[in-house]
Amino acid sequence: MAWTDIPDTNIEPDKPILATDILAIRDNITAQANGDPGAPQQQTAGIADLAVTNAKLATGAVTQQKIANGAVGQSQLKTTEVNYSVKTLSEATGGPRFVSFTTLSGQYGFHPTLKTEGSGTPTVFAYIERNGYDNGSGRVGRITVGGGGTSDKDAYVYQRYVQACPPYDLGDGEVPQFIFAMVNANGVIEAVCSGQEAPWHNNGPTDIRADYYDKHGRGWREEPITETTIETDEDGDPIPVIRRVGARTIEITQEMKQADMTLIPHPFGGNDMTGKTIILIDPVCRLTHTLAEMHREGTSANRLLHEDYIRIGNDALTRKGPPGVMIVKPKWRNTKSQR
Fold first, then answer.
1. CA angle 46-51-57, nearest 5°?
2. How does residue 150 score in pLDDT terms, banded at 50, 70 and 90?
3. Which residue, among 304, 324, 308, 207, has the nearest Cα to 259 in the 3D structure?
4. Which one, 39, 63, 84, 113, has least CB within 10 Å?
5. Residue 90 burial (CB < 10 Å; 0-12/13-18/19+)?
6. Is the pLDDT of residue 338 over 50?
7. Structure confidence by residue, pLDDT tens digits, 40-88
8. What integer is the mean pLDDT of 294-314?
9. Strands of the 178-183 sheet, one edge to the other
10. Exposed, middle or buried, 114 (CB in 10 Å: 0-12/13-18/19+)?
11. Other beta carbons within 10 Å of 291
12. Residue boundaries of the structural domains of the chain
């Protein structure tokens, strides 16, 4: 509907108004609301503060071009923290322990920080490995944590990283925290890795990053559609030319998120696994939900395991999970098992 200009002379005091002008006034309200040609445009001053709510923003509407340089601060990044830990003086051998971990962060981790727990004078370290082990999945982030000497301090390394595309569901419900542990033949927990992602989420060949999320929390990504043609170069030789001809929107499904589980089933690959058992704390039980909340509040699940506040069962549960990893039930020390 086009905007109609009404001459000022048509609307004057004590002058009858024409029916056509009344109709024009009515229709101009709609024309302005529609932003039709010729209609006055809504100005910034005409929009009240806080008038534009999240519900009024289309999915994917806030693009990179709409964000001012320097506008994204620390609190706007979707980050979490992973804790790697090693019992540096093993009850099994009386010697130092050095354990390599596949980082949960992949290429998206910040510089790690280190903390020790226990007594004595420690020789504790953590370093990022230059090269990961070859497991067929491509580039794998690695970190080695350990210590020695006469110290009985345990080494704890914390690393903040940008998350991939939570939430995660292995088939038995949403997983709040992945807690992996390496246990020796004497039942001693030698190393623990605890975080909201699993090692296959940021290290495998499958890209599970989302460009945006819908109102239901589902992640989506735009992928280009390309076509290849054969052209000739200046010497008349044929060369392939790849051109982008469109794009498609794909959902980041749970199937995609767990696609690389068999490639990187746990964070301890590349270590000497002789006499070791890799376990995963029941990822959907009530206690794991409690530990996830404690983790977010700054209490390390790793320390609770190393210091025997939480004990693990010996029987494998029939949960969905990575191959070669034993899923076990945790319980608080001297309490009944958690449901």
1. 115
2. low
3. 207
4. 63
5. middle
6. no
7. 888 888 888 888 887 777 766 777 777 777 777 777 778 899 999 888 7
8. 91
9. 113-117, 154-162, 79-86, 189-195, 178-183, 277-281, 326-328
10. middle
11. 24
12. 8-51, 74-205+256-332, 212-251
Name 196's Cβ contacts closer than 8 Å, sequence gap at least 6.
80, 82, 163, 166, 176, 177, 178, 292
- Please give the model's pTM, rounded to 2 decimal places: 0.76
The radius of gyration of the chain's CA atoms, rounded to the nearest angstrom, is 30
DSSP bridge pairs for 115? 156
The token pair at 129 is 């490995």
- HEC-encoded secondary structure of the chain: CCCCCCCHHHCCCCCCCCHHHHHHHHHHHHHHHHCCCCCCCCCHHHCCCCCCCHHHCCCCCCCHHHCCCCCCCHHHCCEEEEEEEECCECCCCCCEEEEEEECCCCCCECCCEEEEECCCCCEEEEEECCCCCCCCCCCCCEEEEEEECCCCCEEEEEEEEECCCCCCECCCCECCCEEEEEECCCCCEEEEEEECCCHHHHHCCCCCCCCEECCCCCEEEEEEEEEEEEEECCCCCEEEEEEEEEEEEEECCHHHHCCCCCCCCCCCCCCCCCCCEEEEECCCCHHHHHHHHHHHCCCCHHHHHHCCCEEECCCCCCCCCCCCCEEECEEECCCCCCC
Count the residues in the chain. 339
What is the token pair recorded at 213?
A: 């999320």
pLDDT tens-digit readout, 207-217: 998 888 888 88
CA angle centred on 65, ends 61 and 68, rounded to 5°: 110
Q: Per residue in 91-133, pLDDT tens?
A: 555 555 788 899 898 888 888 887 766 554 445 565 655 444 5
Counting Cβ atoms within 10 Å, is residue 217 exposed (0-12), middle (13-18) or buried (19+)?
exposed
Q: Which residue has the tokens 């076990």?
A: 328
Rounded to an integer, what is the distance from CA 78 to the centroid of its chain? 7
Six token digits for residue 134: 């070859």
